[in-house]
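Fold it.
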Amino acid sequence: MLHVMVFVFVLICTVSYLSICIFFITGWYKMPSLVHGNEQIDYPFISIVIAARNEEQHIIECLQSLLLQEYRKDSMEIIIVDDYSTDATVQLCQTFIAQNNLISIRLLFNREINKEGKKEAIRYGVAQAHGSFILTTDADCKVLPLWAKSMVSYLQENKCKLVFGPVAYYKAKGFFSKFESLDFLSIIVSGAGATALHAPFIANAANMAFEKQTYINLNNALDGKHRASGDDVFLLHKVKRTDKYSIGFLKSKGALVYTYGTNNMREFFSQRLRWAGKSKSYKDFHAQLFSLIVFLFNFSITLCTILLLFNPGFLYYCVSLYILKILIDFPLLYGITKFIGHTRLLRHYIWVQLLYPFYITTAGVLSLLIRNFRWKGRRVS
């Protein structure tokens, strides 16, 4: 009887997982890889908004990359919103602003509005922005010279209200960093593939652009208001409800944004639990469906592995599921690693796949049990 119940459960999970993976793969490979740089745009005034908290190690590198943008300097501004930093982030920004005379840079503070958290920082920055288009990135990111021009060009050419682009970690060193990189890229490529087929469900504010007016119109109605983060995903879901065809993913190497991974396993799990915790506030059908299927499929592998310890008859289930997962996930991860030029990560593909079900199961269960997470010295929900 147990075998029958497990078989039915595994079969449903497997068919569902295969279906969404084929969906993501179709979207990713259907989407053309664009080359930007020579197109003519009218250079609308843009505002680049960055929320920063305790980023003294990275903020200057981020700002320097923004100064190198191949975009008219008199048509852009940078707005940094400090979220109660306790390190030298503010002082470094003030020094950088004093030494810069190329671009308008403003430093704002969450304490000015008695608010805290990344979402509030972005909201404040957008409210103070002069640009008709808002671009967002994170304070620990480095953007390429064509980033702003590529994003604005895509917004205008495709009449999008919101566009997001690829994000990758700097070349990872060590086994744990390889695992983290492949995990992160799987999220990016899944979101991109789904967007290509007009089912966007996830995005990353590290590389995002949108119409200011769209944000203002929708801001008060965003889901997950009690969440400290999720500014990107909840905005995406709200825009999707108004017009799913107005959202795009810019598959262009010129629009690639690089960021840093976490420093250790504790930070990694804290971050991933925070991300997974946001799913409890999702009201978007695709976000709920895809998240549930991914969790259940990985849980089915974990379950069969545990049952194998007590019953050798489950060996067939385990071997079959692992082989299937390795085969179906590969086209996605090969596609994204080739696109960003990090195919060497695939040398670690097999062992990452072997560990992945246990990681997803653990993160999924803990995200349901733990309500608050510690991030950058602060308790967040």
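The longest strand covers residues 46-52.
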